[in-house]
Write a structure and sequence with these properties.
Oligomer: single chain
Strand content: under 5%
Strand order of the largest sheet: 1-2
Subunit structure: The system is composed of three essential subunits: KdpA, KdpB and KdpC.
Radius of gyration: 23 Å
Order of helices and strands: HHHHHHHEEHHHHHHHEEHHHHH
Protein name: Potassium-transporting ATPase potassium-binding subunit
Structural class: mainly alpha
Largest sheet: 2 strands, antiparallel
Membrane topology: Multi-pass membrane protein
Helix content: 55-70%
Distance between the termini: 25 Å
InterPro entries: KdpA
Main location: membrane
């Protein structure tokens, strides 16, 4: 562990902190329909979209209508992406002549991108045409991220409003999030990436001759535009197979740093938006602080593990002074790779700049735990905030039990309906992660996809289903998905996305209909250090009680075996 590494982590956090309040204020203005500096340019476009689609922006929706609009839109998106992939061989912008995508893979990919998971059971440059990458996948990067922002805004309105049946209009929220937030920021980032050397072209592959006289085909394409929204929308789906470890997706340390900041930027800004919309900015900073505590715990653990190197290699006299460099790019090193792994699994973004399977057991366990906690540490765009609110409800419920008082959060009483919906949303994730893993490691189609045996093979399976249910999309890099995995992972992605969103919206609808109770001497304050510690503790304890046995079978026993010289 070096001072330069800690300085990198510190500067990264300070940059995210500096962006949180400005972005939060801008998000509030956009989602509340206020005038911004972009309104003169984009306002007419927004109004034209409403006229063309028949949306009446002044008409708001109940939680059930909001959820129905979201689910209907996602069904249409799934059909569109699936059709593009299945018909790829007959569509234009296919200079490499890629064939149509197999049914199980097309299903898995369509589900993956509409749920903002971006799990990829394929190599992008060898499977997808330019049209599929842009019209099929990149479009979903925008609208799936915008849907997450929309749901977060609707849930915040549920706590901010009193005696209301409405929580906003899904179509309006999604249009505004896409038009005013994601598109402008993506344009700026795309231009920066092109300047840094990331390709943005419709030209076909280039054939180069190496020093050895071998001909090498170098894939190109419209990479920069996909890279921008891939990070900004916490999507993570790479244009190339090795994702952000590829020099055309992530050429140098500067692009690596900007990519990490863009992963966290909107998620951090949403915490400030939360505080502003509920009328107490301190509430937003309390949420951000709890997330930050968990972030530093995770990044410290993974950096420590990777910086110490593999003791089994040291026994053979292999230099480990730089730490564990297996599976990492030398242009990034251990610190930037460890930070990237923590950021991408904190934020529900499946992008990787190093192969997580090559991390040491405890180093690879940290990204796994980040996802198991529901990725509420900043989290995916929108999803991290409403996931955190679910744990905040559990925390205040426990506090209420301790003092014998009806729990309250932001002046709203938490009653039986809200607790039932919260538990439904929270428990569906471990059901998928652990249940599907248990089946996969005992049936032949499940075992056939694993490249390792023993505890490492178990971790490959556990990581895959955890990544799917948490809507992360990163892979342990050793699993080769077959039809069994494509289908079951797709089911896991849908459960992880929609079985959380719908109960969360139901909670928002219930909260919006309630009165705001004035604070009293018995009210538990939710903007103090005590609340920050309580909710962080609840997240860790719930995660530990749920997943420790599975972790013991995988990375923990692998770490103990490694100390005795046994590698898998």
């Amino acid at each position: 562990m070096s001072m330069a590494g800690w300085i990198t982590i510190g500067i990264f956090f300070l940059c995210v902190l500096a962006l949180t309040r400005p972005l939060g204020g801008f998000l509030v203005s956009v989602l509340e329909g206020r005038r911004t500096f972009l309104s003169p340019i984009l306002g007419p476009v927004e109004r034209a979209l409403y006229r063309f689609s028949g949306v009446r922006p002044e008409e708001e929706q109940s939680w059930s209508h909001y959820a129905l609009a979201l689910l209907s839109f996602k069904i249409v998106c799934f059909v569109a992406v699936y059709a593009i992939l299945r018909l790829q061989a007959y569509l234009p912008l296919n200079p490499a002549g890629q064939g149509s995508v197999a049914p199980d893979l097309a299903y898995n990919t369509a589900v993956s991108f509409i749920t903002n998971t971006n799990w990829q059971s394929y190599g992008g440059e060898t499977t997808m045409s330019y049209l599929s990458q842009m019209l099929g996948l990149t479009v979903q990067n925008f609208v799936s991220a915008a849907a997450g922002i929309a749901v977060a805004a609707a849930i915040i309105r549920g706590f901010a409003r009193r005696e209301s049946k409405a929580i906003g209009n899904f179509w309006v929220d999604m249009v505004r999030a896409t038009l005013y937030v994601l598109l402008p920021l993506s344009v700026v980032l795309s231009l920066f990436y092109v300047f840094e050397g990331i390709p943005q072209t419709f030209s076909g592959s280039v054939v180069a001759t190496t020093y050895e006289g071998i001909h090498q085909t170098i894939a190109l394409g419209p990479v920069a535009s996909q890279e921008a929204i891939k990070m900004l929308g916490t999507n993570g789906g790479g244009f190339f197979n090795v994702n952000s470890a590829h020099p055309f997706e992530n050429p140098d340390a500067l692009t690596n740093f900007v990519e990490m900041i863009s992963i966290f930027a909107i998620g951090a800004g949403l915490t400030n938006m939360f505080g502003r919309m509920v009328g107490n900015e301190r509430q937003g900073w309390a949420v951000f602080s709890a997330m930050s505590v968990l972030f530093f715990v995770g990044v410290t653990a993974v950096y420590w593990a990777e910086a110490h190197g593999n003791p089994a290699f040291s026994a053979f006299g292999i230099d480990q002074s730089l730490g564990n460099m297996e599976g990492k790019e030398t242009r990034f090193g251990v610190a930037a790779s460890a930070l990237f792994a923590a950021v991408t699994t904190d934020a529900s973004c499946g992008a990787v700049n190093a192969m997580h399977e090559s991390f040491l057991p405890l180093g690879g366990m940290v990204p796994l735990i980040n996802m198991m906690l529901g990725e509420v540490i900043i989290g995916g765009v929108g999803a991290g905030l409403y996931g955190f609110i679910l744990f905040a409800i559990i925390a205040v419920f426990m506090a209420g039990l301790m003092v014998g008082r009806t729990p309250e959060y932001l002046g709203k009483k938490i009653e039986a309906r809200e607790i039932k919906m919260t538990m439904l949303a929270v428990l569906c994730l471990p059901l998928v992660m652990l249940g599907f893993t248990a089946v996969a490691v005992v049936v032949k189609p499940g075992l056939a996809a694993l490249s390792a045996t023993g505890p490492h093979g178990f971790t490959e399976a556990l990581y895959a289903y955890t990544s799917a249910a948490a809507n992360n999309g990163s892979a342990f890099a050793g699993l080769t998905a077959n039809p069994y995995w494509n289908i079951t992972l797709g089911i896991g992605m849908m459960i992880g996305r929609f079985f959380v969103i719908v109960p969360a919206l139901a909670i928002a609808g219930s909260m919006a209909a309630k009165k705001i109770v004035p604070p009293s001497s018995g009210t538990f304050p939710t903007d103090t250090g005590l609340f920050i510690g309580l909710v962080a503790g609840v997240i860790i304890i719930v995660g530990g009680l749920t997943f420790l046995p599975a972790l013991a079978l995988g990375p923990i026993v692998e770490h103990l075996s490694m100390l005795r010289g046994t590698l898998y």
